[in-house]
Amino acid sequence: MNRTYIKILVVALALAGHEMNANADSLPEGVQVHGFASQAVISTDHNNFFGNTENKASLDFTELGANISWRLNPSLQLSAQAVSRRAGETDNGSPRIDYATADYTIHASENTRFGLYLGKIKNPYGLYNETRDVAFTRPSILLPQSIYLDRIRNFVLSAPGMAVYGESVLPIGNLSYQFGVTRPDTSDRETEGTFLGKDRPGKLKSDAFYIGRILLEPGNGHFKLALTGVSMRAHYQPGAPDALLAGNIHFDAWVLSGQYNAENWVFTSEYAQNHINAQNFGAFLLNRAATGSSYYVQGTYRLTPRWSALARYDVTYRDNNDKDGQAFSALIGVPAYSRFAKDLTAGLSYELSNNWLLRGEFHHVDGTAWLPYSDNPNPAATSRHWNMWLFQAAYRF
Amino acid sequence: MIRAAHTMAHALLCSCLLFGVKTWAVTIIVNPSVTISSASQNAVRAMFAMKLLQWPDGQPVRVFVLPDDNPLHRTFCKEALDIYPYQLRQTWDRQIYSGTGQAPTEVGSEEEMLKKVASTPGALGYVRKVKPGDRVRTLSVSNPVRTFSAE
């Protein structure tokens, strides 16, 4: 497949969509076209993040997307979005269908709504997952990597399956929920790296992925409180020469999210726990189970209608019983600091217009728990303490 | 005398606040094809959030809004919907970039708003004031705390 050609197509569709949207009357009744684009510059003093960034400036982080939706009637909408994402060695920009969803509303009144999503659907994980590739919907250039680990984004992001959703107006506030069953693709390098230590000759295949989120919004959404639960079963199909046997992975996680929205302040915090259980892979990947935990606290402040500032402290531990990673390091031989990460982030955003956004941010990190494997193939060559600068220009329509 | 008038005015102001009768600086308007004349704040908020997509008679709702940074849009969000404009934008963004909904149609000015709402069946929008001769109807919003009369 000629990637450049498809990329030109995505851009052309985005531009055409923008033209049509600017002149919405030219689109058929009920049809909307939207899209987004972003380009970042990233530099680090040690380690590589989304490209060759160590003591260099890299342009290897680009996001492009365009979607079309068709509201046939008040109870049926068809939508699809194509996304091309370059992120160093972790994502090569080859376009993919991000979602292709039929949304069927079974019932809608002023106080209750519920319905079904069918097709390739987006997963509601925490507060930011559904639109995590659209810079405008994120608080910062990078989402807190503890909870929105970009390494395992592929199977959390969207997958073929179905979900039920609904919303009710209760005296305490709006209550909305979504429960889904999907079958995500878990065979990419970063996902295998997370569960099997590195990219393996065989394939990690998911059996089922269950996800549910309940969101309560007291005070017309000035407060948000959410609980997400995820459970995945996957099995390994060994390759032709393979040190691993046909083992199983069980992955379970839950996220507790809270947010306070004031006129100029937004305060957000999320806490997550995950449990990974790897069994029956044979002598070269011993049976192991670990419970990891993550949290961040984040404040954004609107300085003027166009300028806003962000501060965040983000922490992740891969194993609660081995927070400093010493035991894992002694057993496996990788650096102990690859089992945790503490990230202090400060950022500044400037909205040029409703469609253009400029951002800059600085990360001071202790640990490499969320450093991409593909950008840093040799764990021994990484550094525990590192700094990262990012700049991004983003556009949407 | 002046003091008494002042006290009376003060009492009147207090009772207005107490009984929640208040005239807003914004009037919600609908196309004449819309058969209802009042709706709850929950229903109006759900319609502007693009979540409640039809009127009680089944007719599709067509929502028109001014740009996010328009002062009347800001007033409308805070007074009529009791949310901040950025929250409404977040709701639309989540819907349009996850395939779960759409965004309202944006118009550039109040004149265009009046024109679109007058000419689009099922249309819903807002202006500062409706003048005699405007071919739109007003929609009053009721909720347990505040009663909105559109004069």
Automatic annotation (TrEMBL), chain A:
Keyword Signal in annotation: yes
Keywords: Signal
SUPFAM superfamilies the record matches: Porins
InterPro entries named among the record's database cross-references: Porin_dom_sf
Signal peptide bounds: 1-24
Protein name as annotated: Porin
